[in-house]
Amino acid sequence: MRTHSSLRLLGAVAVASTIALTATACGSDAADGGSAGTSGPKEVAAALEKGGKVTVWAWEPTLKKVAEDFEQKYPKVDVELVNAGTGDKQYTALQNAIAAGSGAPDVAQVEYYALGQFTIGKSVEDLAPYGATKHATSFTSGPWNAVHQDDAIYALPMDSGPMAFFYNKKVFDKHHIKVPTTWDEYVEAARALHKADPKVFIANDTGDAGATTSLIWQAGGHPYKTDGTDVKIDFTDDGSKTYAATWQKLLDEKLLSPVNPWSDAWYKGLADGSIATLTTGAWMPANFASGVASASGDWRVAPLPQWKKGGKASAENGGSSLAVPKVAKNKELAYAFAEFATTGTGASSRVAQGAFPATRADLESKAFLDTEFPYFGGQKANQIFAESAANVGSDWQYLPYQVYANSIFNDTVGKAYVSPTKLSEGLKAWQDASVKYGKDQGFTVNK
């Protein structure tokens, strides 16, 4: 379960902090508080026996129970949970602490798309020497791909966001709309709904970097390619063009509600049916139940519409990992806690509290798959989510400065939502601005 502001993929990190981070990426070793490989499983076991304090920066509420269970299992260890802010606020505080060389936590929650900025900056530990390699097959492909590169493992996946299609069955039935299985059918459904009732829109969309990149991911696009400090950005690949062409129809025909997500108007639209669908990560059910309680029983879950008829492709939208900063004071205990929280009983505990698992064991368990959701009319929605997780493309990459790139989305692609600018033009502008920024920070971009 993700918190309110982390549901929307990050808006903006303070530019000064981002510049400091990428400057570190291109040659500085100031943030390197230790070298990877100095500890291993034996040292981790010894640290647990000796005990000590572990400071964890995270906004994820399910970690409270995990911390209590960890302390019960290891009485000599004290876990201090600190909410240093959600998403961008925590990243700013974390980077400032890393740059200062003091005040950083032992463990930090980092969303997958933001992790690259810390790995390229040599700010987080490679966890492979500590024993993380043994978990290579423990996690689903999307989250695992996000935390490792070659032989290095820079964090352990905490949860995941395989995408699904949430739709208001009551509204669909009223207007005799079939659940779309392709994005072309989705456009047709959008037209039919809005024609039947001009107050009803198939979805809301005011422009969101995370939603855009997730749908391009599902379409097979690869706009970002990163190899160390060598970066390529290309929003003219087939997946990006497929997405842009389809979404442009929705914009041109004004078939999308101009309501901002997570606003009061958005919750109202989901409740009264004027916003009829939502395409997002599998962490969403708890937010429906708490924020749109009055529509319980109206909504259902279906697989994502496909770009190619008969396909099963999916993508991730959201999700976080637990990383160990290089400047952590007790890296062995930090790794032990991260491992406990993301695997085995710790992971199962978080799932029981409403988190969506990144672990194959939890995703494949009968109890998980057979869970009925009263909100969705008793539907066993986890079966759809689990299938989505299994079909996430594993070769997606984010920029090593994705936080900054997302922060300028509305200045580039966002113009397509409020002006005659076409989405393809907005994506090109986003590409150009991201290329320029990367070069300014010392990356080798598009060569």
From TrEMBL:
CDD domains membership: PBP2_TMBP_like
Pfam family, one: SBP_bac_1
InterPro entries in alphabetical order: Bact_solute-bd_prot1, SBP, SBP_1_CS
Entries under Gene3D superfamilies matching the protein: Periplasmic binding protein-like II
Domain of life: Bacteria
Keywords: Signal, Sugar transport, Transport
Membrane spanning stretches: none
PROSITE patterns the UniProt entry points to: PROKAR_LIPOPROTEIN, SBP_BACTERIAL_1
GO BP: transmembrane transport
PANTHER family associated with the record: ARABINOSE-BINDING PROTEIN-RELATED (PTHR43649), BLR3389 PROTEIN (PTHR43649:SF14)
Family in the record: Belongs to the bacterial solute-binding protein 1 family.
Protein name: Multiple sugar transport system substrate-binding protein
